[in-house]
Write a structure and sequence with these properties.
By secondary structure, the protein is of the alpha/beta class. The chain has helices at residues 4-8, 20-31, 62-69, 84-91, 127-142, 168-185, 206-217, 232-243, 259-264, 271-289, and strands spanning 36-40, 75-79, 103-106, 111-114, 119-121, 150-153, 158-161, 189-192, 196-200, 221-226, 248-253, 267-269. It starts with a helix and ends in a 5-residue tail after the last helix.
Length: 294
């Protein structure tokens, strides 16, 4: 699934959403791809989850699938909690034929990278992030949680991972309240994820970023794929847009670690390989249908 062979196979199977709203959205995407925005999380969706986030790279066939689909739709956007430049580098998205108009919304939309210019635009960072960055190592020592945890520097945010702890879930739960208090003292919030707690400024989430981008592009249908708790606001945005008449397809990049997303999804696929297969299949089916309906 999701192999390069799939991307070249004109008979690649297009998965069927389990909900009527999802089936309607997929039909709208296939009928009018030129009015569709494809929006995708990065880690766990385009890139497999790995113990060290710095080692995360896009699925080997992700760029090819995106490049095949992007010219056929209104826009493709990667919406991630990572710095935009990091997602571009780890994804291999720069200077790719077919991805000349790719947009990466980093730090939950606080940063934006446009393939057209190859540059990142962003406001000044929140001062609370620097304060937490300085305090966090000693804070973790003070609560007896330094061993087995790992701090990830994210520029406009900072994250504490527990995946390497002896009991990752217990460490995650034990740190949740203390880190929430620390974040609040510096005007930040805590965003929980898959064995990670991210301290970041309020008012930044994938739902807000996605809604603003869809308004900018005047999208008439949208697909969003994600895998983690941080993707729930994007799901909520699509659910709200559906009540307003905009078809939206909610895709979960399947994980046994996060059930909240799969329970709300129209379609659950088998991790990044499943996402790649889905993107390639949509591109093929659009190609087979010929010119889109105006």
């Amino acid at each position: 699934m999701g192999s390069h062979k799939d991307a070249e196979n004109p008979k690649a199977t297009l998965p069927t959403p389990v909900t009527p709203a999802g089936r309607d959205a997929l039909a709208a995407i296939l009928d009018r791809p030129g009015r569709t925005v494809i929006a995708l999380d990065f880690d766990g969706t385009l890139a497999p989850i790995v113990p060290d986030p710095e080692q995360a790279r896009a699925h080997p066939d992700a760029v090819a699938a995106l490049a095949a689909l992007a010219p056929k739709v209104a826009s493709v956007a990667v919406v991630t909690g990572r710095p935009a430049a990091v997602a571009v580098r780890h994804g291999g998205f720069a200077d790719v034929p077919g991805l000349e108009h790719l947009v990466v919304l980093g730090h939950y939309g606080a940063e934006r990278w446009d393939a057209v210019t190859g540059t990142v635009s962003a406001p000044a960072p929140h001062p609370g992030v620097a304060a937490v960055r300085a305090e966090l190592p000693g804070f973790l020592d003070g609560v007896g949680a330094r061993q087995g945890t790992w701090i990830e520097e994210k520029g406009r945010a900072i994250a504490v991972h527990t995946r390497r702890a002896t009991d990752p879930q217990a460490a995650f739960e034990a740190l949740r309240a203390p880190l929430t208090d620390l974040a609040a003292r510096h005007g930040l919030i805590v965003e929980p994820g898959r064995l990670v707690l991210e301290l970041r400024p309020p008012g930044m989430d994938k739902g807000v970023a996605l809604r603003d981008y869809l308004t900018e592009t005047a999208a008439e249908s949208v697909l969003y794929a994600g895998d983690d708790l941080g993707d729930l606001p994007a799901f909520a945005t699509l659910e709200k847009l559906r009540t307003e008449g905009t078809p939206g397809l909610l895709v979960c990049s399947g994980s046994t670690e996060v059930s909240e997303l799969s329970e709300r999804a129209d379609l659950v696929v088998d991790g990044p390989s499943g996402v790649v297969h889905l993107l390639a299949a949509i591109a093929e089916h659009v190609e087979a249908r010929g010119p889109a309906t105006p």
